[in-house]
């Protein structure tokens, strides 16, 4: 099963396994990782599963398409960066095994 | 006698209760957590029940807030098919439906709300349904399909979402609403009209100003809804969606202050300092509007779960949030931020006819109280920020699409 690593804002890393086909948000929620709130449950309706994708992974995860729902939601999320994504919009594939993302200071 | 080990008992394993258990672990509560749920399923998402679940696009696994293994791994004593029957606030103990007694250090009431029942003749016929739980949704799903006829009493979110799902499954849907418009309690007239028109364009029949006299049946099954004017809407199933009432009886019986909901402060604490209450069952404070009310929403359940967990663990109170709600119908996404208390003016931004717009509700001094956005996530997200900052805006600026939401919110 692919492994992904979430790094809390304070630097604490959490590496978890998640089946391909699930989303990165589900990997965090299923493992009760602090810092991903996921209020809407993965509907791309709340922007509380915001992560920063580590530079070496951006090519594989991609960035939100301009004008997409994700881009709209991110435009007003707390503390966005150019490498911001909503983790509910990243579907895990074998190619994402080893993915590392960092979490913002807060989701609200 | 030895002191019992510290334990938090959570009465109710819905979105609020399940999230409270998880957040308590995230914030570092190391002692016992007992999570008591009436339903046979571990905590799950209710919003998809009227949408993806009905349409067969979700299963029990995808509905679950967390996989079953989580509760074991996190050492959460999850007891399903069980309810809290009684609270003894002096002994700090609860009695469960299976006869067990649990001592608590803190008790969190997350008892939710139940569908309002209307005392209509025929209400006990088979296939007269409500939609609160996965079991309810399963019953509805089993009888929906091509050519089936669903009659819906109540044009609120549940009714509208169920109508949209019924149409997606090829069933006929008729909404019967007592008020002159759908969403009468929760949306403004412009929005009601937009949704009415859209549902009608999708083949949903909507009867407004329509009182229901009785449910008619044959061989124990519902066959139609008889209206006050004598007409009968024939159906294979009737869905009653006329609001919810808070499950506050358990608290009331224990002498905890209730007032159409369990009364809580901004730490989600009840009148008993060892007892908290969260989610649909609470009557809460809304500091940004200087009011108290009941909020039936997932974001509210999560916010109060965080409040209670933070208070129990002695952490700072989380920042107050702007209330928000969402509803998906067909390819329409409705997102609402805030509540339009005392609003005197509605300003449209965008194009209602094109199905992409937001309605800004302003008070007399121009303060934005609420924003209703249809397929306009940017307006919704920007709107939350505008509300958070209690900004005042002019109608001219709001409706001017050359002014970006970033500019409006800054």
Description:
The complex is a heterodimer of chains A (108) and B (410). Chain A is an alpha+beta fold and 108 residues long. Chain A has a single domain, classed as Beta-grasp domain (Ubiquitin-like (UB roll), Roll). Chain A is built from 3 helices and 5 strands, in the order ββαβααββ. A 5-stranded mixed sheet of chain A has the order 2-1-5-3-4. In chain A, 43% of the residues are buried. The model of chain A has no long low-confidence stretch (mean pLDDT 91). In chain B, strands 3-2-1-7-19 form a 5-stranded parallel sheet. A 5-stranded parallel sheet of chain B has the order 9-16-10-11-12. In chain B, strands 22-23-26-25-24 form a 5-stranded antiparallel sheet. The model of chain B has no long low-confidence stretch (mean pLDDT 95). In chain B, helix 5 links the parallel strand 10 and strand 11. The relative contact order of chain B is 0.12. The chains are: A alpha+beta (108), B alpha/beta (410). The interface between A and B is medium-sized, with 20 and 32 residues.
Which keywords apply here?
heterodimer; A: alpha+beta; Ubiquitin-like (UB roll); 5-stranded mixed sheet; globular; B: 410 residues; alpha/beta; FAD/NAD(P)-binding domain; Enolase-like, domain 1; 3 domains; 5-stranded parallel sheet; 26 strands
Distance between the termini of chain B: 61 Å
- Helix-strand topology string of chain A: EEHEHHEE
Number of strands of chain A: 5
- Average pLDDT rating of chain A: 91
The parts of chain A where pLDDT drops under 50 for at least 5 residues are: none
Assembly status: heterodimer
Number of separate domains of chain A: 1
Low-confidence stretches of chain B are none
């Amino acid at each position: 099963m692919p492994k992904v690593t979430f790094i809390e804002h304070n630097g604490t890393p959490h590496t978890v396994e998640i089946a391909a086909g699930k989303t990165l948000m589900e990997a965090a929620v299923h493992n009760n990782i602090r810092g991903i709130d996921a209020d809407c449950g993965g509907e791309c309706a709340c922007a509380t599963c915001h992560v920063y994708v580590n530079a070496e992974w951006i090519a594989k995860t991609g960035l939100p398409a301009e004008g997409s729902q994700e881009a709209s939601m991110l435009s007003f999320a707390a503390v966005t960066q150019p490498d911001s994504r909503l983790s509910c919009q990243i579907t895990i594939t074998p190619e994402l095994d080893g993915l590392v993302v960092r979490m913002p200071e807060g989701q609200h | 006698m030895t002191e019992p080990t510290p334990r938090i008992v959570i009465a109710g394993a819905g979105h609020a209760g399940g999230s409270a258990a998880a957040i308590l672990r995230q914030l570092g509560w190391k002692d016992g957590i007992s999570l008591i749920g009436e339903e046979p399923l571990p905590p799950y998402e209710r919003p998809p029940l009227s949408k993806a679940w009905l349409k067969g696009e979700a299963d029990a696994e995808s509905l679950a807030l967390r996989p079953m293994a989580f509760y074991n791994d996190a050492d959460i004593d999850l007891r399903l098919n069980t309810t809290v029957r009684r609270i003894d606030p002096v002994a700090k103990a609860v009695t469960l439906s299976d006869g067990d007694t649990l001592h608590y250090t803190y008790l969190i009431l997350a008892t939710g709300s139940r569908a309002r029942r209307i005392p209509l003749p025929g209400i006990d016929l088979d296939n007269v349904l409500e939609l609160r739980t996965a079991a309810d949704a399963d019953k509805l799903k089993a009888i929906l399909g091509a050519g089936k006829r669903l009659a819906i009493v109540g044009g609120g979110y549940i009714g509208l979402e169920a109508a949209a799902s019924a149409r997606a499954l090829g069933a006929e849907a008729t909404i019967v609403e007592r008020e002159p418009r759908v969403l009468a309690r929760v949306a403004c007239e412009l929005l009601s009209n937009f949704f009415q028109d859209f549902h009608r364009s999708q083949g949903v029949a909507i009867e407004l100003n329509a009182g229901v006299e009785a449910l008619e049946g044959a061989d124990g099954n519902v066959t139609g809804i008889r209206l006050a004017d004598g007409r009968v809407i024939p159906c294979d199933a009737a869905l009653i969606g006329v609001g919810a009432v808070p499950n506050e009886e358990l608290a009331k019986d224990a002498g905890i202050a209730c007032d159409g909901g369990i009364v809580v402060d901004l730490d989600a604490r009840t009148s008993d300092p060892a007892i908290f209450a969260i989610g649909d069952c609470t009557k809460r404070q809304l500091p940004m509007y200087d009011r108290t009310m009941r909020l039936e929403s997932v974001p509210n359940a999560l916010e109060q779960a965080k409040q209670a967990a933070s208070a129990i663990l002695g952490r700072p109170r989380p920042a107050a949030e702007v209330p928000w709600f969402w509803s998906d119908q067909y390819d329409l996404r409705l997102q609402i931020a805030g509540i339009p208390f005392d609003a005197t003016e509605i300003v449209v931004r965008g194009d209602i006819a094109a199905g992409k717009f937001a309605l800004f509700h302003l008070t007399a001094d121009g303060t934005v109280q609420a924003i209703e956005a249809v397929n306009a996530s940017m307006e919704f997200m920007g709107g939350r920020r505008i509300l958070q900052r209690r900004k005042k805006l002019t109608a001219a600026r709001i409706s001017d699409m050359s002014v970006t939401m970033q500019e409006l919110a800054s």
